[in-house]
Design brief:
Four Helix Bundle (Hemerythrin (Met), subunit A), DinB/YfiT-like, two-stranded antiparallel ribbon, mainly alpha, DUF1572, DUF1572 domain-containing protein
């Protein structure tokens, strides 16, 4: 496999990993939880999901041929806490991710150094991918943080539980020695 195609596979795996963290958090939240905000300057999980999906639809639709900031996008509206249900939230969440993964699946090594635009600023495809990875990981991290605060003692950890690092390391060493 060539370097470029290997990169595209790795980046898809990383996006899937970030999405999984969001999925596992959203699954733990109630209808009420998705609308919780700490204060006026904070965003709810519902708002963060709307923003992420709006960004993904805009950035990844017609990715190689049009500016990533589409004229139809209303970014300000993404910050209104008006998703009616958790079911709607999941549908909005999936819409954005589906467009992202469809676009990434269509890219090849030959596309990585092509020039695209986001808000009239020129980027290579490689740079645009990395830019979006950082943006999505940042916001999914916010979702996880909100979830941990809300669920407190009922939170189901998404990574290595506190106090279990050594046990996990031993498990991984054993697992990789068996391969």
């Amino acid at each position: 496999m060539s370097f470029g195609n290997e990169y595209l596979q790795v980046v898809q795996d990383r996006f899937k990993s970030v999405k999984t963290l969001g999925n596992k958090t959203i699954c733990q939240l109630s209808e009420e939880d998705i609308h919780w905000v700490f204060n006026e300057e904070s965003n709810s999980v519902a708002v963060i999901v709307k923003h992420l999906s709006g960004n993904m639809v805009s950035r990844w639709s017609d990715f190689l041929v049009s500016d990533g900031e589409k004229p139809y996008r209303n970014r300000e509206q993404e910050f209104e806490n008006n998703i009616s249900s958790k079911q709607d939230l999941v549908a909005i969440w999936e819409k954005g991710w589906n467009i992202l993964f469809e676009t990434l699946n269509d890219l090849g090594e030959q596309d990585l150094l092509k020039k695209i635009y986001i808000r009239s600023e020129r980027h290579t495809v490689l740079d645009a991918i990395e830019r979006q990875m950082a943006h999505y990981a940042y916001h999914v991290g916010q979702i996880v943080y909100i979830g941990k605060q809300l669920k407190d003692g009922d939170w189901k950890t998404l990574s290595i539980p506190k106090g279990k690092s050594e046990e996990y390391l031993q498990h991984m060493e054993k697992k990789h020695k068996e391969k």
